[in-house]
Design goal:
The structure is a single chain. The chain has 367 residues and is an alpha+beta fold. The chain is built from 20 helices and 12 strands. Helix content is 48%, strand content 12%. It has a 4-stranded mixed beta sheet with strand order 1-4-3-2, covered by helices on one side. A two-stranded antiparallel sheet has the order 5-6. A two-stranded antiparallel sheet has the order 7-8. The longest helix is centred in the last third of the chain and has 15 residues. The radius of gyration is 25 Å and the shape is globular.
Length: 367
């Protein structure tokens, strides 16, 4: 409300205990009653209701050993960042801000509530969340908060892969992705989460094809050109050239023979490590492994070109090629050629009807 951004959901904080909440509403779900959290089901909606609390010591870098119910001020002071520590009273229609959140929004600052070292140690995921908020809203990370973030960056490895993946995908898809990855790199989080991408810094490229600079710079420029990408496309952009450090040779000029298939192998390892689904992993790996196919699309035999166009999610393959060109030599001739051919081909030419299916085999007596 302060930032004039429509929220996706609402959380309710109250002095009512979980037992009080259960008695006040017809249908509740005790998802985290030991932490003072209940779900109230009303009008088909799930509303999270949390009792004001203060947390004791955190044992696992995420969950407190125990909690004590408290007042609203203590509840605000245990939260992560000042911009997330405000309340709104819907009855009196007033903001309640014990932590300076409105002022930090006015100044465009991401600041932890209280001691940043303590806040980050309580939940290490806050390290990457600070970067996401900074990138998404264009806010600066307050200096003491930033120092603590850099000092504790190694702790991100203690966070589950699923939680890290979710934050990373949001950085890449909620935008601006380039700023988000640059912040991850500057705070050394990138080297912890994706050392394969951090290793792209300083890997030279032939200037006649890549006037923009090294491989990391090229990747960052691609991220800058992305517009509302799917998670799969965004990850493929980030990983499309991770094979280059492993295939760099210098002869007549700098070359990267076979970097696409090598990159596909590395991309699969990354996706498995971050617990992407099998379907997402297959799509990301395919995008990385096939991203050079468009270099010779105009010289391809017609049937080979149709096979390329027939690929699942072909639009994302084509978009990855466009971004690759925009971030390097800027020549979009092959991309434009593909658009023209797509117009020329009838749908059945690219996706012909199936000649033989499982039902046919069963009818013929095969099991």
């Amino acid at each position: 409300m302060v930032m004039n951004i429509l929220p996706k959901d609402y959380d309710v904080a109250t002095s009512a205990t979980p037992q009080d909440v259960a008695g006040l509403f017809d249908r509740t779900i005790a998802t985290g009653a030991q932490f003072g959290v209940m779900i109230v089901v009303t009008d088909g909606q799930n509303v999270e209701v949390a009792t004001f609390r203060s947390d004791e010591e955190y044992a696992d870098g995420r969950h407190p050993i125990r909690v004590e119910f408290s007042g609203e001020k203590e509840d605000a002071e245990r939260r992560d960042f000042t911009i997330n520590g405000m309340f709104y009273d819907p009855i009196e229609e007033r903001f309640i801000d014990y932590v300076g959140g409105r002022e930090d929004i006015r100044r465009g600052i991401i600041r932890t509530i209280g001691d940043p070292y303590q806040r980050f140690k309580e939940d290490r995921l806050r390290l990457i969340r600070a970067v996401r908020f900074s990138a998404r809203y264009g806010y600066a990370i307050e200096e003491e908060t930033r120092r603590a973030l850099v000092a504790l960056a190694g702790g991100i490895t203690l966070v589950s892969a699923e939680r890290v993946r979710e934050e990373l995908v949001r950085i890449l898809t909620e935008g601006p992705a380039r700023r988000g990855v640059e912040l991850l790199h500057d705070t050394t989080l990138l080297a912890q989460i994706l050392p394969e991408v951090a290793a792209l810094e300083g890997v030279e490229q032939p200037a006649e094809f890549h006037p923009e600079g090294d491989v990391l710079t090229h990747t960052l420029v691609m991220l800058e050109h992305m517009r509302s990408p799917s998670p799969e496309l965004a990850m493929a952009v980030l990983l499309h050239d991770v094979g280059k450090p492993h295939t760099l040779t210098r002869a007549d000029r700098i070359r990267f023979h076979g970097h696409a298939p090598v990159g596909a192998q590395i991309a699969e390892e990354v996706c498995r490590r971050l617990r992407f689904s099998n379907k997402q992993t297959a799509q990301i790996v395919d995008l990385v492994g096939e991203h050079l196919k468009f270099m010779h699309v105009q010289e391809m035999r017609e049937n080979k070109r149709k096979r390329l166009f027939r690929k699942e999610n072909f639009a994302e393959h084509l978009e990855l090629h466009r971004l690759d060109c925009l971030a390097s030599h800027g020549n979009l001739d092959n991309w434009e050629y593909c658009l023209r051919k797509l117009e020329e081909y009838r749908s059945e030419e690219i996706h012909p009807p199936r000649l033989l299916g499982g039902d046919d085999l069963i009818a013929m007596g095969y099991r």
